[in-house]
Each structure stands twice: as C-alpha cells, then as structure tokens.
Amino acid sequence: MLDFRRLAPSTPAALAKAGVRFAFYSGQKTQDMRKAVRAAMAAGLTPEQALRAFTLSAAEIYNVADRLGSIEPGKIANLVVADGDLFAAATKVRYLVIDGIKYEPLPEPPEKETRQ
Predict the structure, then answer these.
(1) Cβ-contact 75, 65 below 8 angstroms
(2) Residues near 64 by Cβ (< 8 Å), separated by ≥ 6?
(3) Mind listing the pLDDT tens digit for each residue in 46-60?
(4) Cα–Cα distances in angstroms (integers) from residue 31 to residues 7, 17, 20, 34, 37, in the given order
(5) C-alpha–C-alpha distance, residues 30 and 26, integer Å
(6) Is this model's pTM higher than 0.85 or not?
(7) CA quadruple 52, 55, 56, 61: dihedral sign
(8) How far apart, in whole angstroms, are the C-alpha atoms of residue 114 and residue 79?
C-alpha cells in the first residue's frame, strides 16, 4: 500500500508518456489539489499535460468535448483567471467566468496551527 502512495506523483507522467488519456478531479481542497499536481509535475508531468488533464482530457473522457474542454467558437467557455502560473504555490485565483458570468472565489480559510 505504501508503494502506491510513494509512486502516486509519478503516475500522471507515466500515463501521459504511454499515451493513456487521464484526468484530474477536484474532490479535495483546492490547495491540496494544486499541491498534488505540483508533485506530479516534479515527477515529470509537463504543465501542458497537467492543464489538459483538467480541461480537454476530462471533457473527452465524459464525451462532452464537442461542448467543453477547450476555448473554441460554439463551446461553453468556463475560465479561471489567476495572477500567475496556475500551478505555482503563490498564485491566487482572481475570478472565474462560468457560462459568461464572472465569479470571485471565496477566501481560503486560514491554515490551522499545529501544536506539538
């Protein structure tokens, strides 16, 4: 079981190298997801492969790539606007555009201090 955890960050790059379509999902806190993607990138996943796994690959897997997943005429454009590299730790999401409506994200709750 520990081997699976140890190898988890290298799995996306291995899948991409093998030509296997894969996608990320966001069933966790945004900061945790971005941290996991940074670990995958440190293990060989390119930024382009990471972005595709969140966008077009996910749309292809769900068979909705004709409507979602890339910015093209006639497609639904849900966009994330950030103040820097989307996967960088210090980057902040400034707003989202979902179906033409601008939304500002809720502030992240402060990290809890752990006492030892």
Answers:
(1) no
(2) none
(3) 999 999 999 999 999
(4) 20, 26, 26, 5, 10
(5) 7
(6) no
(7) positive
(8) 35
